[in-house]
Amino acid sequence: MTPGNEPRHVAHETVEERLAEDIVEELDLHPVPDEKAGEDEPLPSMSEQIAEQLGGVRGLIESSIPVLAFVVLNVLFGDSVLGLEKRSALLWAIVGSVGSAVAIGAVRLARRQPVRHAVNGLFGIAVGAWLAWRTGDAKNFYLPGILLTFGQAAVLLLSVVFRKPLIGYAWGIMANKGRQDWFGNTRLFRTFQWLTLVWVASLSLRAGIQYYLWAIGEANALGIVRILVSWPIYAATFALTAWAIHRVTSAQQAGLEEA
C-alpha cells in the first residue's frame, strides 16, 4: 500500500492512539471494557499489573544488584574491613555498581530480552556514580534518586491541585487503550484523585527516609533502605492502586450488565 492510499481510519489515527496501542501490545495489557462498545475483556489481574510494573521478580532482583554491589564493596574496601583510603574504596564501589548494571543489560541484550528496565537502571546508576566520584562522598550516589522521587511526588500533587490526576492518565494509557474518558465518570475521577494523593504520600515517605539518612551521612544505610524499604512501599502502593481501580470498574460494569 502506497503512502496516501491508507484506509481513512488509519490515515486519521492519532499519534496518541498509536502510542497507546504499542504500549498495550508490548505489555500485553487488556483494555477495560468499554461501556459504549459493550466489550467484556477483563482488566489484568492485580498480580499481573504489579509484576509488570516491577519487571517481575527478576526485574526486582536486577534493579537491586547494582545498589547492593555499591554497598557491599564500599563496606568491604572501606574502613570497616580492608581499610583502603576513602576515595579508593569509593572507586571500587562505583566500578562494581556500574559494572554489574552494564553486565545485566548485556546479558538481556544477548538473550534478546527487553532491556528498557536495564537501560533506565544503568542511567540512574551512572548519574549517581558520577556525582559520588565528583564529590568524593559515597552518600551522593543516592542523591539523584532521592531528588527524582521528591520531584515525582511534587508533580503528582500538582496534578491533583489542578484536578488532572496523573494516575488516571496512566490508567488510561495502560488499561483503557489510550482513552481518557474517565473525566466524565465521577466515581473514577474521585478514585484517581485520592489514589494520586496516596502516591504522593508513598513517594514522599520513601524519599524522606532516604533524605534523612543522606543528611546524617549514613551512606551504607541508604543503600539498605533503598533495597529493603523502598520496594515494599512501592509494591504496596501499586497493589492498593490496582485493587481500588479494579473494584470501581468491576462494580460499574456489573451495574451496566444488571441494567
What does the model show?
By secondary structure, the protein is mostly helical. The chain has two domains: 46-137; 142-259, no CATH class. Helix content is 74%, strand content 0%. Helix 3 (46-54) runs parallel beside helix 4 and helix 5 (86-110) packs antiparallel against helix 6. The protein starts with 7 loop residues before the first helix and ends with a helix. The model is unreliable at 6-13 and 26-41 (pLDDT under 50). InterPro entries: UCP010219 (IPR016566). Keywords: Membrane, Transmembrane, Transmembrane helix.
What are the secondary-structure elements, in order, as H or E?
HHHHHHHHHH
Q: What is the distance, rounded to the nearest whole angstrom, between the alpha carbons of the first and last residues? A: 45 Å
Structural class: mainly alpha
Shape: elongated
Uncertain stretches: 6-13, 26-41
- Helix count from the secondary structure assignment: 10
InterPro entries: UCP010219
Keywords: Membrane, Transmembrane, Transmembrane helix
Protein name: Membrane protein
Pfam family, one: DUF3159
List keywords for this structure.
10 helices, 259 residues, 0% strand, mainly alpha, single chain
